[in-house]
Design brief:
Blueprint (H helix, E strand, L loop, with lengths): L2 E2 L12 E4 L13 H12 L3 E6 L5 H10 L9 E4 H10 L5 E5 L14 E2 L7 E4 L14 H10 L2 E4 L5 E4 L2 E4 L1 H11 L2 E4 L5 H15 L8 E5 L2 H11 L2 E5 L16 H11 L5 E3 L5
Parallel strand pairs: 1-14, 2-3, 2-12, 3-4, 5-6, 5-7, 7-8, 8-11, 12-13, 13-14
Antiparallel strand pairs: 9-10
Length: about 280
């Protein structure tokens, strides 16, 4: 069982680079978390390099504009590595192929500036899934008919957001990862652009090196996040430590947001096959 700590300042000296999740750690989709923002600014003031690593299916610049709207200070990070950035690279690697986009209109920034040809499912060469059309009301099952068409045509899916769910205020809403998981379970081929897969961590460390001028020692790199499926497993697979936020999307599994139950946490981490270096309720300096 990892240490359950109350202040990040006790752990911070062990690390030079922080790869910090955004949704669930820095904000909940509606409001920023002031203590988390302060903790990251304090970390940067202490010489740490902070790169946001997010499964948002939009370019990093678009994510930054969203953070501006939520009043997350730009001083909280040095740069952003997004699933949208990785998705764009994957699209660029398939020139001349047409794609069908599954997801809301707000995610179209992912295609801005790219030479892409859109097509319906019946004729597209592959599919880019960035989310549900209406994540306030839909579930992955609403996509089953379209997924059956894809499976019949043996189309591969590029998943622009491997998150299964995220918090929006006090609710959990489905993300592209839940649709991709259903398609994979049906027998479809899926390429995931973000956490827990390696490319987004490589991109984040490239950005950390550009910001600091130093190549990071993986032993001194810390991932911060609230998802077992993406943050914890991704950090473990990449060979870096993880600081886990217990009051995030797994809060109910841990016995509630107010006071996480250590035994419940132990069970969840054991089932995942990985344990974080430490856990906190919320990110606090």
């Amino acid at each position: 069982m990892p240490n359950l700590i109350s202040h990040f300042s006790a752990l911070a000296p062990r690390y030079d680079v922080l790869l910090c999740d955004v949704w669930g750690v820095v904000h909940n989709g509606e409001v920023a978390f002031p203590e988390a923002c302060d903790a990251l600014m304090q970390a940067r003031a202490a010489g740490k390099t902070v790169v946001y690593i997010t499964n948002a299916p939009r370019p990093g610049e678009a994510v930054m504009r969203q953070l501006d709207g939520l009043r997350v200070p730009r001083e909280t990070c040095d740069d952003i590595a997004s699933s949208g950035d990785v998705t764009r690279s994957a699209i660029e690697s398939r020139p001349g192929q047409s794609l069908c986009h599954l997801g809301p209109e707000r995610d179209h920034a992912i295609f801005t500036g790219l030479d892409v040809q859109f097509a319906p499912l019946e004729s597209a060469d592959y599919v880019v899934c960035s989310g549900l059309d209406d994540d306030d009301n839909q579930t992955p099952e609403d996509f089953r008919e379209r997924l059956e068409i894809m499976l019949k045509r043996k189309l591969f899916m590029l998943c622009g957001n491997p998150d299964l769910v995220v918090e929006r205020g006090d609710r959990l809403v489905y993300c592209a990862g839940s649709v991709a998981e259903l398609y994979a379970n049906m027998g479809g081929e899926v390429l995931y652009a973000g956490k827990p897969h390696r490319p987004i961590y490589e991109l984040a460390l490239q950005k950390a090196q550009a910001a600091s001028g130093r190549v990071a020692d993986l032993k001194r790199v810390l991932a911060i996040g609230d998802s077992v499926h993406t943050d914890l497993k991704g950090a473990a697979a990449f060979g870096i430590d993880c600081l886990f936020m217990a009051a995030g999307i797994h809060a109910e599994e841990f016995g509630g947001r107010a006071e996480p139950n250590v035994d419940s946490m132990r069970i969840v981490f054991a089932a995942a096959g990985h344990a974080p270096a430490a856990a906190m309720r919320h990110l606090v300096w």
